[in-house]
């Protein structure tokens, strides 16, 4: 029977990591996990930032890095992602614990960071084989989801050291203002003549 836990596979062609360079960096910078033989596997579902599983002896560590090739300006910021996760974990321990950040591109060709692996079941549209989601279990999942979402929204983001991410008043209100009607091209749809597109960066509302 298939496991309901997301499986990993060998890295996709062109997305392999330099295992020797990575092993050397780990031994020097993350001694708690470095020093053993490394088996690199990849979580195959993501194509934005790439996520790998490093099996080092009896330890499992997750590595995150940007995609290979051209990248959107301002996107795929591993340093920012590491910093946010590091500060959130301090006040919300259910988030995975980040272990180390590397900005030396000579290791694997890009910024990356490591975090602990939290093993669990991701419930998507299709129920994983062998998972009995009876009404009682579903109720518990939904209640846990709401409870954790509420907890996250009560966190003191300033005390957590995240105030430098604050964009000022009007940032969220600006998102609707960034939407504009456009005429859909025939290659996109044959059933409607117009749609709505949102810019990727909000307009500041005064």
Outline the structure in words:
- This protein is an alpha+beta fold.
- Among the domains are: 19-116, Phosphorylase Kinase, domain 1 (2-Layer Sandwich); 168-198, no CATH class.
- The chain is 25% helix and 19% strand.
- The protein is built from 5 helices and 7 strands; from the N terminus they run αβββαβαβααββ.
- It has helices at residues 19-29, 78-91, 105-108, 135-153, 174-177; strands at residues 38-42, 50-56, 59-65, 98-102, 112-116, 179-183, 194-198.
- The strands form 2 sheets. The protein has a 5-stranded antiparallel beta sheet, with helices on both faces. Strands 6-7 form a two-stranded antiparallel ribbon.
- β2 (50-56) and β3 (59-65) form a beta hairpin.
- It is globular and about 45 Å long.
How many helices does DSSP assign? 5
CATH topology of the domain at 19-116: Phosphorylase Kinase, domain 1
Fraction of residues in helices?
A: 25-40%
Tell me how many strands there are: 7
**Cα-atom radius of gyration:** 21 Å
What is the CATH H-level superfamily of the domain at 19-116?
A: Phosphorylase Kinase, domain 1
Corresponding CATH architecture of the domain at 19-116: 2-Layer Sandwich
Helical/strand content category: alpha+beta
What is the terminal-to-terminal distance? 57 Å
Oligomer: single chain
**Name of the CATH first level of the domain at 19-116:** Alpha Beta
The residue ranges in which pLDDT falls below 50 over 5 or more consecutive positions are 182-206
What share of residues are in beta strands? 15-25%
Mean pLDDT: 81
Q: Describe the global form.
A: globular
Q: Reading side by side through the largest sheet, how are the strands ordered?
A: 1-2-3-5-4
């Amino acid at each position: 029977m298939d496991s309901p836990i997301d499986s990993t596979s060998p890295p996709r062609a062109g997305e392999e990591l330099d295992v020797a360079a990575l092993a050397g960096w780990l031994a020097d910078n993350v001694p708690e996990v470095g020093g053993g033989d490394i088996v690199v596997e990849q979580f195959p579902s993501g194509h934005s930032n790439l996520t790998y599983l490093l099996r080092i002896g009896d330890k499992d560590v997750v590595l995150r890095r940007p995609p290979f090739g051209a990248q959107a300006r301002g996107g795929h910021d591993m340093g920012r992602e590491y910093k946010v996760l590091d500060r959130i974990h301090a006040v919300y321990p259910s988030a995975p614990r980040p272990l180390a950040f590397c900005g030396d591109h000579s290791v694997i060709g890009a910024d990356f960071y490591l975090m602990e692996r939290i093993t669990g079941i991701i419930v998507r549209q299709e129920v994983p084989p062998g998972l009995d989601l009876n009404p009682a279990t579903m109720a518990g999942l939904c209640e846990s989801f709401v409870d954790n979402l509420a907890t996250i929204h009560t966190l003191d983001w300033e005390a957590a050291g995240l105030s430098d991410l604050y964009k000022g008043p009007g940032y969220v209100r600006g998102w609707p203002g960034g939407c504009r009607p456009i005429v859909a091209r025939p290659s996109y749809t044959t059933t409607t003549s117009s749609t709505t597109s949102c810019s990727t960066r909000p307009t500041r509302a005064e």
